[in-house]
Amino acid sequence: MDDRLQPEVIARPVRMDKRGAHESHAGRARAIQFELPVGNDPVSIRKRIEAMEQVLERGFTIPGTRYQFGMDAIIGLVPVIGDFITAVMGAYIVWEAKNLGLPRWKLWRMAGNIAFDTAVGAIPVAGDAFDLLFRSNTRNLKIVRKHLDKHHPETKVIEG
Questions:
Q1: How far apart are CA 41 and CA 57, in angstroms?
Q2: What does the CA dihedral 57, 71, 143, 147 come to, rounded to 10 degrees?
Q3: pLDDT tens-digit profile of 41-81?
Q4: What are the residue boundaries of the structural domains of the chain, listed by start?
Q5: What is the DSSP string of 70-85?
Q6: What pTM, to 2 d.p., does this model score?
Q7: How far apart are CA 63 and CA 61, in angstroms?
Q8: Residue 27 CB neighbour total at 10 angstroms
Q9: Is 73 exposed, middle or buried (0-12, 13-18, 19+ CB in 10 A)?
């Protein structure tokens, strides 16, 4: 078959630690790399959601610590517009969850997580600190993972 007709993966993982974060070598941070499939099957959707969550919540590590933060905290520093942009990026996870067939109550709960994060994050200074602590996208990923592990066990990733 012709490979150009069926693109499988846009990026491939190179080196990750046990938590799924990028490793650093001799004080230098490595680029964030993850698998980003383009299919509509539950496995592909799960990987895309996990990639978006990693970018938004765990993309960077504070040097000298193990504390991770992501683009949600960085973009949220821009007043009003930054919080709106991160809300739209978080809504992508809800949209993918809808495509998976999650029940409406779970979708509303996910939307509530994003709305709460956006509302509190819009408060100057205190909201920026809150963005570092409240990870709405990580909470939404847990909801999606729990649903997929129950209804699509073939998507479950066994780490070890």
A1: 24
A2: -110
A3: 888 888 999 999 999 999 998 899 888 999 998 998 988 89
A4: 3-154
A5: -HHHHHTTSTTHHHHH
A6: 0.74
A7: 6
A8: 7
A9: buried
